[in-house]
Amino acid sequence: MKTSRLRAAALSTTAVVVATVALAGCGSSNDDASGKGTVTITVEGWRPGDQQATIDYVKQQAAAFHKLHPDITVVPKEWQWNAQTFPAQLAGGTLPISFRVPFTDTKGLVERHQVADVDKEIRALPYFDELNPNVLAAAEGTDGKVYGLPSDVYANALHYNRQLFAEAGLDPDQPPTTWDEVRADAKAIHDKTGQAGFGEMTKSNTGGWILTTLTYAMGGRVESEDGKTATLDNPGTEQALQLLHDMRWQDQSISANNSYDWAGVNQAFAAGKLGMFVSGSDVYNALVTTDKIDPKEYGLAAIPLTDSADAGALGGGSVNVVSAKATPAQAKAAVEWADFFRVKKYTDQDAAVADAKAQTASKQPVGTPTFPIFDQASYTNYQTWIKDYVNVPLDQMKGYTDSMFSLKLISEPPVQTQGVYGVLDPVVQKVLSDKDADIPSLLQEANQKAQQLLDQG
């Protein structure tokens, strides 16, 4: 799936952007008053519901980019990838020229020729040879070409409300490290505060995404490594569903009103209605910029893993791709924008500091833990460069950061990822809405549907 982090450099006025929009249609090439050619690109800007400070920040960075590249004008648009709406947007041609898709969706878009070939532009970036090969693989087609710039790498983690922990008599500095502890803490929160101890996403493919996360944490897999065989009816998934069932029906620590997608669970958590939930390790950014969480209440911990040798944390990220409708000049400009806005700061100290200053001025989170797209050393360097500007509660995230580099990361299912997640959504919904749900039968039926999807390739 996905989360967001924003790029920056020096701040500037947005007048250039506004003026250009008045003169040019989205994504078109135009001549300015001087007769000098300009390229205009629309880009993914901010999420629906983001605060005005975030919107202003993105527009400021578009103007700053224009100062560095006078022949390119960037027009940010409100947009967020969503599994349910993306196909229609793609078919209708309403996507920005530059946008991000989950790691798992890139290869399908490449095979269907729905994103531009930007291999030459990506390889020309000064840090290309330093990219983590495992991360870069998400942007590669079967032809060996690179079709986008990876960013926003994450590992799913456990997010918890420190205030609810304290009110329940739990130590906020000692988050749970096993699933038994998660269950016990969730029950304590429910019993002593009246709030749901745990929130589970259930729709828009997020139910399947998080169930797969729990499956991995318990040593299971929902597909074979080659993506040819569905394995939804495995002991790990069954164990995960049984845990959710017992928390819902025995402990009542999962609320009866539990119809959440990614945005919905963020809203509920930020409002203090959930003790814990599982999502990407960098979701704190969205909780701040969209949902106005009180930072003092936030805690982050590594997702608990069982003793299984196959247990690990689901990892993912985004690939910055370019619309297949882009002209060659627009495609080149889009790669330059993705570099400027999302990646360059991790390799260049001046860019990192400028970015941190700009984010601080716009009241954006600085220093939220992520997984490096390069290596641990580059991540450490970046954190050193920005240390004077960090404004996130890192001391409240030690449950994650102390172990993040030792976590075993497991990629999302390789084939028909969103389809498989969609098949699992109703399974999660059934278990949380029917006390007598037959988990093995539900998984067997879901596995048959998933296999049909995998057979389509």
Name of the CATH class of the largest domain = Alpha Beta
In one word, what is the shape?
A: globular
Overall number of structural domains? 2
Rg result: 22 Å
CATH topology of the largest domain: D-Maltodextrin-Binding Protein, domain 2
Q: Kindly report the average pLDDT value.
A: 89
What's the total number of strands?
9
Which key terms come to mind for this protein?
457 residues, alpha+beta, D-Maltodextrin-Binding Protein, domain 2, 2 domains, 6-stranded mixed sheet, 3-stranded mixed sheet, 18 helices, disordered N terminus
Describe the model:
The protein is built from 18 helices and 9 strands. It is an alpha+beta fold and 457 residues long. The protein folds into 2 domains: 15-153 and 316-392, 3-Layer(aba) Sandwich (D-Maltodextrin-Binding Protein, domain 2), CATH 3.40.190.10; 154-314 and 395-456, Periplasmic binding protein-like II (D-Maltodextrin-Binding Protein, domain 2), CATH 3.40.190. Strands 4, 5, 6, 7, 8 and 9 form a 6-stranded mixed β-sheet that branches. A 3-stranded mixed β-sheet has the order 1-2-3. Strand 1 and strand 2 (37-46) form a beta hairpin. The longest helix is centred in the last third of the chain and has 18 residues, at 439-456. The protein is globular, with a radius of gyration of 22 Å.
